[in-house]
Amino acid sequence: MQKGSTRPGRNAVTKSLKTHSRAKITEATIEAHGASLQHESDRGTVIMTAAMIEDTLTQSIKQRLAHLNHNEIDALFDFNGPMGTFSSRIKCAQAFGIIDRQTRAHIEMIREMRNACAHSQNPLTFRDDALRDAVFTMLDDESVESYREDQTFIRLAFVVLTGVLASIIIEGDVQKGAARVNAIIKQHVEEHEATNKGA
Question: Which of 146, 116, 160 has the alpha carbon at shortest distance from 134?
Fold first, then answer.
């Protein structure tokens, strides 16, 4: 706090906030992120999840730049730098072999969803064609045909898929991550079908 004031100093507050925004992302962080979305709006879920994916990309790219010093890395990731946007980080991640083309396509779609939710003056939800169809582009045909009208499943599929995409980025193993995606989606589909039969 500033001397003689009950209010905290701006510099101290800014430093504290940056500590949170720069925290390392791990598998535990990804799981905690998924749990934190339970009471979040659909719009908030998309924006927060896109931020998590972007932060994970940033972390993985920076690990490939260990030969640079702190100032050089900051210059690359500055808003006006070559890696200053989500879009440029996605391209860079593919160039470094962190993600493959399919993973890049999924993350590009998540970026577009984020932009729509952040800038739309209308309250978007997974009931809206735009968000629903965006999720469909990341699912297999069977899931799309079976769950077209189920908003709960669409939201769950989005959260699970994006969590696994973050794991792919961290692990740097696309094949392992893709297999994990398929297994988790299949499990949720089976659980959903069993719930509907029992209803």
Answer: 116
pTM for the complete prediction?
Answer: 0.78
Residue 11 counted as domain residue: no
Q: CATH code at 156?
A: 1.20.120.330
Q: What would the pLDDT profile of 82-128 be if each residue is shown by its tens digit?
A: 999 999 999 999 999 999 999 999 999 999 999 999 998 888 999 99
Cα–Cα distance for residue pair 111/87, rounded to 1 Å: 8
Is residue 72 a part of any domain in this protein?
yes
- Separation of alpha carbons 34 and 46, rounded Å: 11
Does 12 map to a domain?
A: no
Tokens of 129: 């064609």
Q: Are 55 and 165 in contact (CB under 8 A)?
A: no
Q: Which residues contact 8 (CB under 8 A, 6 or more apart)?
A: 1, 2
* 182 belongs to a structural domain: yes
